[in-house]
Write a structure and sequence with these properties.
Oligomer: single chain
CATH class: Alpha Beta
CATH architecture: 3-Layer(aba) Sandwich
Strand order of the largest sheet: 11-10-9-12-8-1-6-7-13
Number of helices: 6
Number of strands: 13
CATH superfamily: HUPs
Helix content: 25-40%
Low-confidence stretches: none
Order of helices and strands: EEEEEHEHEHEHEEEEHEH
């Protein structure tokens, strides 16, 4: 069995600087694997350990994918090898899904493709569904649990007021939620072994962009309203009740 775990390199939000006009400065931001993608990688590794499968990490991006530290980090999380596709760092979801579909089609077979619920930067939550459509495979998002059962998988999805259990024939594409697992923290042995794992690089020809970012600004800061009530407990309770009724 072969499992593909897709991920995206995203700037570390802790390093982003907000300018006076709410513009975002990414110049000092370090690149890291998206937090939701770590759930996809962990889900792939856990399944692989259960059924004896190979896990391939697949990513589309720009120069950030050449970062040795990033490569080692993602390989140390449980991937057996990496396939990195050089494309546009600002690709929209359809461009990304198209590049992933082409790369997957060039692999020597696969059984399951796992993605995170969304990327840590844009969080469009569209790539998984678009990828499944491009590959012509059964596709599900919002998956909280995956179990392999022969030639199919059984997945659970949390709905509002209900839990949905679905069986999917393989191959299939699923996008998992952050609640599916707790990603492992790589140990020293994992980090050392990561440097010896194979990494393949290829380029991608992307279709024209279907969406364009018009602006990207930090949320506008609103001063907190503050009401102070004083007096004995009965008096402060009355003041608080009056204030709440006025809202």
């Amino acid at each position: 069995m072969r499992i593909i775990a897709c991920f995206k390199a995203s700037p570390d939000v802790a390093d982003i600087i907000v300018g006076p006009g709410r513009e975002l400065d990414f110049s000092r931001a370090q690149w890291k694997v998206g937090s939701y993608d770590l759930n996809a990688i962990e889900a792939a590794r856990q399944l692989a350990d259960q059924v004896g499968a190979e896990v391939i990490g697949l990513s589309v991006g720009g120069e950030e994918l050449a970062n040795t530290k990033l490569r080692k980090d993602v390989l140390s999380r449980g991937l057996d090898r990496l396939v990195l596709v050089q494309g546009s760092p600002d690709a929209d979801s359809y461009q990304t899904a198209t590049a992933l579909a082409v790369a997957i089609g060039e692999l020597d077979g696969y059984d399951l493709v796992i993605l995170g619920t969304g990327s840590s930067d844009r969080y469009a939550q569209q790539v998984g569904n678009q990828l499944g459509a491009l590959l012509g495979l059964p596709t599900l998002n919002a998956v909280n649990s995956i179990a392999v059962d022969g030639e199919k998988i059984r997945v659970e999805r949390a709905l509002e007021g209900a839990e949905q259990v679905i069986e999917l024939a393989l191959p299939a594409v699923v996008s998992v939620t952050s609640g599916i697992n707790v990603p492992r923290i790589a140990g020293m042995r994992d980090i050392i072994a990561a440097g010896k794992k194979p990494v393949a690089e290829q380029s991608a020809t992307m279709p024209p962009a279907s969406a364009h970012i018009v602006s990207l600004l930090a949320p506008e800061q609103v001063a907190r309203g503050r009401v102070v009530v004083e007096g004995d407990p009965a008096d402060t309770a009355a003041q608080l009740a009056t204030f709440l009724k006025s809202l």
